[in-house]
């Protein structure tokens, strides 16, 4: 009789424990960030070869903050001017400098200040976004930093520091 009661209770506890462990990621394989050359699709970046972008790219760190640190990633040929990338999971962190003015930058757009740089935040449009793009809108060139949402704010803080140190602030160009 005791065995008839104890066995189902024990089975329920084991199943519950496995469910908690699975939800916590205990059974998920560790995925390593890709580190090979990254091919980027071309985008409209009329100022990618400007002095501002050249200065910023030279000032960017080899690695970005993360756990573990996000190592720089080489670009595949043909390399798009004004770009830099870092290895991250599930997608790389990508910086593009010299972009055209974002259409989302309107008088009612919400901007976020990170270490003295005004950023327009654009998500991938899904209910639970996996990527977020920050566009620096208060410098002489537009700079986009696209990151996976789960890596936190370290990359945008680090890049903000380099932008603030390299490119002078200018008034916003609103329509």
UniProtKB/TrEMBL annotation:
Name it. DUF3515 domain-containing protein
User: Do the record's keywords include Signal?
Assistant: yes
- The superkingdom listed in its UniProt entry is Bacteria
InterPro entries linked to this entry: DUF3515
Question: Per the record, a Pfam family?
Answer: DUF3515
Which keywords does UniProt give here?
A: Signal
The signal peptide annotation in the UniProt record is: 1-21
């Amino acid at each position: 009789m005791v065995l008839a009661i104890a066995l189902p209770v024990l089975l329920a506890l084991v199943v519950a424990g496995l469910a908690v462990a699975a939800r916590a990621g205990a059974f998920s394989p560790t995925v390593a960030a890709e580190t090979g050359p990254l091919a980027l699709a071309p985008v409209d970046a009329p100022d990618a070869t400007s002095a501002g972008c050249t200065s910023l790219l030279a000032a960017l760190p080899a690695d970005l903050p993360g756990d573990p640190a996000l190592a720089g990633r080489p670009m595949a040929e043909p390399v798009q001017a004004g770009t830099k990338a870092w290895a991250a999971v599930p997608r790389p962190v990508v910086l593009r400098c010299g972009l055209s003015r974002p259409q989302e930058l309107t008088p009612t757009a919400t901007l976020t200040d990170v270490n003295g740089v005004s950023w327009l935040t654009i998500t991938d449009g899904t209910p639970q976004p996996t990527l977020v793009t920050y566009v620096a809108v208060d410098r002489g060139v537009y700079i986009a930093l696209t990151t996976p949402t789960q890596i936190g704010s370290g990359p945008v803080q680090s890049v903000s520091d380099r932008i603030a140190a390299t490119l002078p602030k200018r008034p916003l160009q609103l329509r």
